[in-house]
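User: I'm putting together a teaching handout on how multi-component assemblies are represented. Below are the sequence lines for each component of a complex, exactly as they appear in our records. Could you produce the 3D structure of the whole assembly as structure tokens, so the students can see both representations side by side? Please keep the chain order the same as the input.
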Amino acid sequence: MAARDEILTRIRTILSRPDLPFPPAEAPPLTAGERMTVTHAEGARQQLAKRFGEELTQLYGSFEILASAVEVRLALVNRLTDWAAEEEAARKGPKPETYGQDRMVLSWAPDKLPIAGLSEVLTDMQWKLVAPQQLTTPEALDGVRFIRFGVTGVEAAFAATGSMLVVSGAGQNRAASLLPFRHIALIPFSRLCPTIEAWLATQRATGNLADLLRGRAGWNLITGPSKSADIEMNLTLGVHGPKFVHAILFDDGKPETTETEEYRNWRIEKFEQSETEE
Amino acid sequence: MTLSTIDLTLPYKTRVQDALSNKHLRVALERSTGRMAGQRAAAMAAIDEQTLRDQVRQMKEHVLRNLPDLLEQLERNVTANGGHVHWAKEGVDLQRILVDIARKANVQKVVKAKSMVTEEVHLNQALQNAGMTVVETDLGEYIIQLAGEPPSHIVAPVLHRRVEDISDIFQRELDMPPTLDPQVICSVARGILRKEFLSADMGVSGCNFAIAETGTCCIVTNEGNGRMSSTLPRVYVVVMGIEKLAPTIEDAFLQYQALCRSSTGQQCSVYLSMTSGPRQLGDTDGPEEFHLVLLDNGRVDMLAKGYGEALCCIRCGACLNVCPVYREIGGHAYGSTYSGPIGAVISPSIHLEVTDVNKLPYASTLCGACREACPVKIDLPRMLLELRRDVVEEHDAPLFDRAAMQGFSQMMQSRFRYETAGKLGSLGSNIFASMSGGNIKFMPGPLAAWTNSRDFPPLAKRSFRELWHERQRQRQSIGKEMKK
Ligand code: SF4
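Assistant: Of course. Below is the structure of the complete assembly, with chains in the same order as your input.
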């Protein structure tokens, strides 16, 4: 720890110099009241859903807005079937080896998805929903690496930028939104917020933002399909992550809240101490 | 074999000459820098730009004023999240720490997401010397790794290469059939790199910012290689400069959006990956080991020497894209990991091996475009001037510069001397100019460096001061006329 103490002590000594040109002696933190919202959005849920879709489309993603959870199951199956046919038609040359994974969908655990019964509907249509318990060994990864479709829910989605926040946890693998060629995100209206800033403010007001973030190991804000401009600023899609991102937004009829019952219980259990202290 | 457009170890002057005479480089620079600068300007104009810049600035000033406390807070939180924190004073310390972590975890293959800090300390070489395979996974970084070159831009590492050059590299190194389609080149890389991700033991990335209040390390990427590196391998190591902190989550998202708009003109990058420690009980995937390495390597010196303002930099690259010098010579001519105006300011302090590092503050026209573009409002021209002064004071400058600087400062201290010098200069230069027909075509001694490439106009026959006085006199007399 010699290096640590040396570095910290040295910075403290330098900062105490009255003649130091920078940083200024008075350097107050930004307060919640003054911090700006960078990209704005407002309106009722339908409008927010439309705005989300427009933003995502500009980034080469796609979307659809559905009236109820019931419609989502059907829409998803139809999409999968269409995409599979599309890819088959576009394929040049022999079919690549997929080790029986071409009718599979890599997913979060069914109980972590915002609609019920998806697994059954998929099975009826000769698709298979795969939600691994564990993806940390080469063998486990081999079992999913040729799957072309990934399905997840979201923690929150932001209309102003067409972004979605996904989070790791039990039953919520990180791979489903990362490894497959296409990522399909299921977004109930109750998870849709106008802006990142609005969501942060709500979470902060309920007193749990910091605990929420560090309570899960991996968070990702995803805005559109993977892309690169490294070759002469030419846009190329699907460099490492999914080449297609499709959002299905739907009215789940629930009141607008970003914290689910289940999540709240989990949080209270995990941070019981800080709750009781309050 | 090294294919670098410019040999970084050559003297500064030769590097610049090589860059200026490289036609392909000029084409590549022209195709990219203008576009990046335009995208930034449009993305900033769409929002309340001034407020955003002021607020990010205020946040960074607060970070630097409270740096030790915030670093301690970050360390506490990362540790509480189950991660390990290491401190490195110099590049060699960082190399040693990384090799130790890798050896202990029995690592064979390392995948890297783009990181300037690890470039700065030549981490790849160290890991390779320790017997490990290191694969750069950012598309641009992968291309230059194949070509054996260093990056030439903070954000777009292969900006110095045309698509034709990149295709050549892939054909030679990977046996790719000839194509000029970026999408095809990209899918070749995707296939190869996917295999590397799935078989790697350790992922290494930089850190765009770390959140002190939660111990969360954040990386901003578009391709997804950052997510792969932080998700798939058993061990994930984040390397960050000690200044890259955001106190709160809200601060982090503010800086994030300023960075995206300023670097690539995006509202949000495709991915913002936030990691708070190793995978938790019940998690399906994610690394089982998480390390954060904090690097000084001259950053504290920067603060001590009065260049602390440069530590506000969020590495967006905007100042490179607008700099008339960078746009002409590209990144490699600077000879440093960090190029452009910000590179010229920090390279002399950061512990890097750069040939002629003291010449870098002169790689600027002081036009001020960088200051106008900077999302943190860093006064780069002022610091470049101060660095030039330091160079002169350190007697490191050529004898002529020193004499000239001394003469200049003496002259400026007395009005009489200033005016006399001006008159003499005017007289002398006009005689000189009239001998060579209008402009001065050659000058003696080191001044020849100027006249070798362009003419030097003679000093005005009458000084601005003289003209001003005369104008005032005329005005007064006109005023008197009017009153009559
Ligand atoms: S100095 Fe400013 S403009 Fe240049 S890279 Fe840093 S933050 Fe961006």
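A couple of points students might notice: Residues B 313-319, 342, 373-376, 378 surround iron/sulfur cluster (CB under 6 Å). Residues 23-45 of chain B form the longest helix (23 residues).
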